[in-house]
Amino acid sequence: MASLIKNPNKDNNNKKVKIIERQAILKPANSFTTDDLKTDDSKEKIKISGVDRVTFDTSVRMNNHIKNQLQAMTLIGAAKNQSEAIESLLVEWLNSIDSDTERMFKFQVEMLEKKDVVKFNSKK
Q1: pTM listed for this prediction
Q2: Its domain of life (predicted)?
Q3: Which among 75, 83, 18 is positioned nearest to 57, based on CA atoms?
Q4: Which of 1, 72, 81, 109 has the fewest CB atoms nearer than 10 Å to its CB?
Q5: pLDDT by residue (tens digit) across 1-41?
Q6: Which helix (H) or strand (E) holds 99?
Q7: CA–CA gap between residue 86 and residue 71 (Å, rounded)
Q8: pLDDT tens-digit profile of 48-101?
């Protein structure tokens, strides 16, 4: 059983091998506490490059049945295009949900919009 345990300081012939010396323990130059992370609402919010909303084209993966239904909405004149059809369906959905779900939805949309702005600003 003892032969199964391999000593990292000796090679297979039981001869000592060169031991790698440890480096000094790294310590950060500046430290902080969790209190430093708390934000103060009275401080002025900083806008990055003045842009607070961006709009760009993107794609959505969907099966052919949903795509066909969106296209049918445009063909019968319920919407100008498929994007507008999705938007009108979202408006109808928002009108049918309770206030808590609507609040959570709007919060999530706001966070995703902020993420898009940060992503847009980082590309500049």
Answers
A1: 0.55
A2: Bacteria
A3: 83
A4: 1
A5: 555 666 666 666 666 667 778 888 888 888 878 887 776 65
A6: helix 99-122
A7: 10
A8: 556 778 888 889 899 999 999 999 999 999 999 999 999 999 999 999 999 999
